[in-house]
Design brief:
Cupin_2, 11 strands, Cupin type-2 domain-containing protein, metal-binding, metal ion binding, mainly beta, globular
Length: about 140
Amino acid sequence: MFISHDDILKDCVPMGLNEFFSHHREAHTVPAKDVILIRATIESGEGHAFHYHEDREEFLYILDGKIEQWVGEEKKILSAGDVVYVPPGVVHASFNVGDDEAKLLAIFGNLSSSAELAVDVSEQEPWCSLRQQSS
């Protein structure tokens, strides 16, 4: 099956744009059996604040840009070609610290889960003050 750029499910979000190639609740995307694939564009200075996926593991592949990536309370600066693995239930966040937009591929397992895709914890401690403490 092929999917053209015009057929991709696009979702404008505060950080930028999510493009869904497969989705757990959208029948018109690619009918993958157990994978969610999202291309995320994060505008400069924006990010996907601290959150976790209850019962889904995730890979993030950096396509372009400079990302401040958190997994738990550990921080790394990532660039094109870098990969991060996030186990289910582990809090993580991605922030674009570059001057241009950043692009990532987010790959999730457990498509059949009934849980919400992401649970936001960005207003809870220690997550709400972690970035300030590390500066």
